[in-house]
Amino acid sequence: MMASVVCYSEDVSRLAELITFAKAASQSVLAITTSIVQEGIASFGEDELIVAGPVEPQKLDVEGVCELIKKHISSDTKLVLLSATKFGKEVASRLGAKLDTAVSNDCKSFVLEQNSVKVVRMVLSGNGVSTEELSKLPAIVSLQSGLLVPKPSEKSANVIRVGYTALSKSLTLEVKSKGGGVVKLEDAEKIVAVGRGVQKREDLSMIEKLAAVLGAAVGCSRPLAADLGWLSDDQWIGLSGKKVKPKLYIAIGISGQVQHIAGMRDSKVVVAINKDPNAPIFANSDYCIVGDLYSIVPELIKALSEKESG
Question: 62-71 and 86-99 are packed helices; what angle lies between their axes, rounded to 10 degrees?
């Protein structure tokens, strides 16, 4: 198919977002996925859906996905859209190098023009907005997730199933599960995030209790994931971690450096707990509580539990 926009994601919910964006900008959209879950993905308005594999997530490789996308880029293709995940951004960069074309990652929006693609993305740790024009086509763009609600279409796409060939020169010897039941931070309406103010790993149980009472997901700042390894990378919120926008964000023992703020600045209501009255997080909070988290958090758990039971 000769499509103006080609969309790829291994995650069907993210692919639905990309298709919705693409259909608003172009009349011809080709979607590609390697996802095992495919229910409903052919009904978001794309003209054709390529299902490769399907492939287990841990068996996906960047080289294989790049080749898969390359096979479906035509002379009419002006834009390749991917999700701004770690994997998606790696594919974007590698594919851009292979095609010797323009790449822009972590974008918030784009406009498809006659001979270029204009994109808008956050820069300077989220403190600035950059508008860039990509004149070398097809442009490769990764979009942040959660920017819109996918819109189903009455039209169903033509579905074509193809094989998938892994091309990576590395071999996966073992895959260890991180454990189930963890809500995607990007989808969470409430998040309790914890920082270096927590003194011991065992004290995270207190944070988890508060999250459980609130029905919230648990996130963290960079030190707890990258330096200490107390929480996983999937729970890391910040410039190099997850970008979230919950209805409620509670920051506990987080100083609030610009790198962290870049990941949660779109939260609707921010509550910060920190013993330092000059902590930068307070400048980005709706409610500021100055005090020792080891005194405040147990009281919060007690009050919320009593309210729930009463």
Answer: 60
